Amino acid sequence: MNTFRQQAPLVLVVDDEQEVLDEVAAVLSGAGFEYRCCKTADAAIEEANANSFDLIISDINLHGHSGLEMCEQIKQSQALRDVPVMFLSGAQIPDIIRRSHAVGGAYYLRKPFDPEVLVELIDKVLWMPHLVANRAAQRETAGAAP
Questions:
Q1: Where are the beta strands (DSSP E) in 96-145?
Q2: Is the pTM of this model over 0.70?
C-alpha cells in the first residue's frame, strides 16, 4: 500500500461562523478525515502554506477577503495550486457557481448541507487521478527532505 493512502486526508475548513466549523468538523471526523479550521482567508492561506493539505473547504463570504479571492491566491501559488478547493456556502450571488469554478473551485455545495453529500463530494475530489499523483509526489519529496 502506498504512503499516500495510509494517511488520513488532511482538510482545511475555512468559515467565519463557529457553528459551521463545528458541524463540518464533526462530519469530517466521523468520516475519518483529519482537519484544521480557520476563520479568515488570511489565516487559511498561512495555514495552507505551512501544511500539506489534501483539500480546502471554504465559505464564499469571509471577513476581509472572500473565499473566491482566497482561492485565486491559492491557485497562483506553485506549492498550493494542485490543492483542490471546494466551496460550502449559502451565498445567494448571481452566477456564484460559475464564478467559483472560474477561480479554480472544484465543487460548490450550498448551506445548509447534507453531510452525506459533503462526504461524497470530498471523496470525489480527493481521488481525482492527477491530484492523487501530484499530492503523493509532494509527500514523498517532503519526506525525503533532511
A1: 105-110
A2: yes
